[in-house]
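Can anyone check this?
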Amino acid sequence: MAQILAPSTQWQMRITKTSPCATPITSKMWSSLVMKQTKKVAHSAKFRVMAVNSENGTINRVEDLLNLDITPFTDSIIAEYIWIGGTGIDVRSKSRTISKPVSHPSELPKWNYDGSSTGQAPGEDSEVILYPQAIFKDPFRGGNNILVVCDAYTPAGEPIPTNKRHRAAEIFSNPKVEAEIPWYGIEQEYTLLQTNVKWPLGWPVGGYPGPQGPYYCAAGADKSFGRDISDAHYKACIYAGINISGTNGEVMPGQWEYQVGPSVGIEAGDHIWASRYILERITEQAGVVLTLDPKPIEGDWNGAGCHTNYSTKSMREDGGFEVIKKAILNLSLRHKIHIEAYGEGNERRLTGKHETASINDFSWGVANRGCSIRVGRDTEKNGKGYLEDRRPASNMDPYVVTALLAESTLLWEPTLEAEALAAQKIALKV
């Protein structure tokens, strides 16, 4: 992200009733479908649907039902409950009917799922409870239908091991953290793969495209692969109410990035997880595979990260650059703890090449994309602003990363000896 701007004052997502955006199937259309079934049938290798002619041309019965807006006919809505599965990176979901539109997660009932089927509970005691935590408008169903980001608990009310949101919420509710109003801007990189061969989109099967250079932020059939997916995702996130702030093609062909933020506290994690779910659904519909692997192709190709821009109230005010330096010192002392929490397979990405720092060393610099922590030129010039943590991998858990940044810079205090030693080491590397 180029800079951290002021976040919306509407920190808690609210859902408002929307106008009908799709035309329901009329009785005349149904009559046409029923009475003209002797017409030609459209065949597909995977399924077959009835297609008939009407005043408006060809009607696909399945497509019309998918686009059917139920808002004018019922108060009921469809809520898609979303949660994180047993790998800690997979998103799961299922739907239920709610009797009326809602504007806050507290209006929704808790639900449950079979944890033995997601690797989160044993078969003999498989029930896991979903707690609704954030709601977004559903870009797939439209109307008043919603997406519901949930976290998971045992029937006794204890967070299950893969529930990282619970601990993050505790950190963000700490008075010291709340007073500093932490802002986050997260840059989510991802790679699109061809379905059957699991090779990047636009790459010749079993071969390689030309070297990196022409693809970053490029246009053209020989340089940009998957733009429609990126654009569809961008609009769907805006519709949903996700605080998406931009998107661009990345350095490796078939790789893209979008930015979410600035977001305050726990909202950052909720918005990233909702945006990932929407991206999974769009790639599903497009017949393309999404991967968040931090190094999908070995060799002289960029990996995929999730750079996290971070600032506190004190960093954004006059004299903030000194606060940023103190935060960087704390981060240097907890480098190993952060690396362990920043995503699986990150050692394949953080090699010191391809715009990364070595996973074994901590460094920081102004406008240096080869450092662990980058500080922007404007931050140095203005004496206040934000820092960018370039270490998180594309498959990191945003609840973990955002909470850990707040904990390390606002709640954790090093010993004087460790602080002095770290200051000396950092001074030598800058």
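Reply from J.R.: I decoded it. Residues 267-286 form the longest helix (20 residues).
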